[in-house]
Amino acid sequence: MNQSVNKSEVGYELPAVVKDLTEDLIRNYSLRYPGVFLRTIHVDKETAAKWGFPSLVLQGSQTMNFAAEMLFKAYRERWIENSTLTVKLIKPVFAGDRIVVRGRVDKADRQPSGQVRVGINVWAQNGMGEKVMVGQAEILV
Amino acid sequence: MDQADYNRQAVDWRHIRVGSDIAVLEYGVPFADVVTYVTEAIQDPDPWYINSSPYGGPIVPPGYFYGEYLKLLVVPNYPMGVLNSQLSFESSGPVLHGERVAVIGRIERIYEKRGRPYMDLRIIVRKADGSEPIRGLVTLLLELEEVAHESKR
Q1: What is the ipTM of this complex?
Q2: What is the pLDDT of residues A4-17, one digit of tens each?
Q3: B146 and chain A: CB distance < 8 Å anywhere?
């Protein structure tokens, strides 16, 4: 990780967020949503198996939350006050796996106000190192 | 009922009207719910979420609202689709614990891409003063061929 680079400079790598995906973690999130009354692939192993998945499937919005955690830890109130995050979910992630979310500043546009609009390439990998989510964030810092 | 059963009994996506607000959820997120959310559902018990923040009290994580589209879709019995392919959210300010918000869902677009049907659902989190600290767009794949085939049996 290149920690000598400032958070608003191209090349800055955000500290990664790592989550071990237990069944409880996936269920605890998804039971807040229709998993409470539907046997979804996120809360019911039989349903997941019926859809051809080996285990409970991590919900896309939960994956996005892990990316948000990484961005919030790095940029704090700037993340809360002026930010966007767009992610594409490209591969399912399962209970028992580990997910690592990473980000790197790939754009820094100085604004007339003196602030910098930072573009961050965001991605997540499973335990095999395969990309499961890709995305882009923008934050005014 | 599982997810496929739900989608089968839901309103046919071909009959969904674009531009309509499908549901509004009004609430204030209580302290206890935020604590449960950050400790058990996302494992990020940041002090700003549970103790204090520069905004005059602990705040609700913006990500709390990322999954609310599912609650919105089931109100009019709309399909949840088979997977979400893209999520996009912007944050322009904090939501404090207990602060009243209206979470609004609006169908923005229904379209086909490579022969598959997709729906874009706009999510708006609006405060009583009219400000919208969180706005999002969720893209759902509504049907996979094999699932559609299964539903016609």
Answers
A1: 0.92
A2: 679 999 999 999 99
A3: no
User: What's this model's pTM, rounded to 2 decimal places?
Assistant: 0.92
User: Is the CB of residue B12 less than 8 Å away from at least one CB of chain A?
Assistant: no
Residue B152's pLDDT band (boundaries 50, 70, 90)?
very low
Work out the percent of chain B whose per-residue pLDDT is above 90: 78
Residue B66: both structure tokens together: 């990322």
C-alpha distances in angstroms, B121 versus A88, B20, B34, B52, B134? 15, 10, 25, 33, 14
* Residue contacts between A and B (CB atoms, under 8 Å): 113
Report CB contact under 8 Å: B87, A83. no
The CATH number given to A58-140 is: 3.10.129.10
| Two structure tokens written together for A38 | 């539907």
Residue among A62, A68, A86 minimizing CB distance to B88 = A86
If you average pLDDT over residues B94-118, what whole number do you get? 95
Tell me which residue of A54, A25, A51, A22 sits closest to A39, measured CA to CA.
A51
Does residue B151 carry a pLDDT above 90? no
Task: Determine whether the interchain pair B89/A39 forms a contact, defined as Cβ–Cβ distance below 8 Å.
Answer: no
B3-29+60-152 CATH fold: Thiol Ester Dehydrase; Chain A (3.10.129)
Asked if the Cβ–Cβ distance from B92 to A61 is below 8 Å, we say no
